Amino acid sequence: MRIDQTCRKTAALTLVEISVVIVAIMIVLIVVLLPALSRPRERSSRISCLNCLKQVGLAAQVFAADNEEKFPWRVSTKAGGSLEYLNVPNSAFRHFLAISNELSTPKVLLCPEDKERTTAIDWRIGNQNIIYFVGLNASETNVNSILSGDRNLMTNGVPVGTGLVELTTKLTAAWTARIHKNAGNVLLGDGHVDALSNNRLQEQLIDSGVATNRLLIP
């Protein structure tokens, strides 16, 4: 009996079709794995930022120990402080210059996640080399007062800009997504550093014991 050979033909993928399938698989793998691969890098940057902020806190405490328990913005420039720049809007960097002798390098003033600022190679710095705000109401005797923290803040849904910001408990403070993805770090008066969510940031403002927290944003 003769068998019809046309029934024995099987379909086969062409080289082009195989290439398309391979590319599609690679795209799926990239979409699935990329977020997982980026998370360790984000955690590393966050830890680095926390460590830098701890160094800022230690430097401020060393300065205060040598100046009657006062942070730089409570000490005259004639005595090595930055009091005269207390109410100058664009002078955040001046207050960090006052503790430069206690800091090993200006690189600690910038987080790797802040892509809008540049790392300084020496102490000829400006606001463009700093990520951290200055808490002008901070006191070493008030351990919960806000001494410094990340600049990616917003109030009532509006990002803050460079200059003086006054945070009251009536304002809703939160973090923007531009640095730590809706999170941030805060340095307290006793040198302790906390990584805070939006809810914890609002709670910290209340726990600070200060009715109005005056922050100088770089």
Provide tags for this entry.
single chain; 218 residues; alpha+beta; six-stranded antiparallel sheet; three-stranded antiparallel sheet; 3 helices; 9 strands
In short, what is this structure?
The protein is of the alpha+beta class and 218 residues long.
Q: Can you describe this structure?
A:
With 218 residues, this protein is of the alpha+beta class. It has one domain (45-217). It has 3 helices and 9 strands; from the N terminus they run ααββββββββαβ. It has helices at residues 15-65, 92-97, 198-207, and strands at 132-135, 146-150, 153-155, 158-159, 163-168, 173-175, 184-188, 193-196, 212-217. The strands form 2 sheets. The chain has a 6-stranded antiparallel β-sheet with strand order 5-9-1-2-7-8, with helices on both faces. A 3-stranded antiparallel β-sheet has the order 4-3-6.
Helix content: 25-40%
Largest sheet: 6 strands, antiparallel
Distance between the termini: 91 Å
- Figure out the total of helices: 3
Order of helices and strands: HHEEEEEEEEHE
The overall strand count is 9
* Gross morphology: elongated
Amount of beta strand? 15-25%
Count of domain modules: 1
Mean model confidence by pLDDT: 85
Report the radius of gyration as a whole number of Å: 26 Å
As residue ranges, the low-confidence spans are 34-41
What class would the helix/strand composition place it in? alpha+beta
Which strands sit side by side, in order, in the main sheet? 5-9-1-2-7-8
Describe how the helices and strands are arranged.
Layout: H1 15-65, H2 92-97, E1 132-135, E2 146-150, E3 153-155, E4 158-159, E5 163-168, E6 173-175, E7 184-188, E8 193-196, H3 198-207, E9 212-217
Antiparallel strand pairs: 1-2, 1-9, 2-7, 3-4, 3-6, 5-9, 7-8
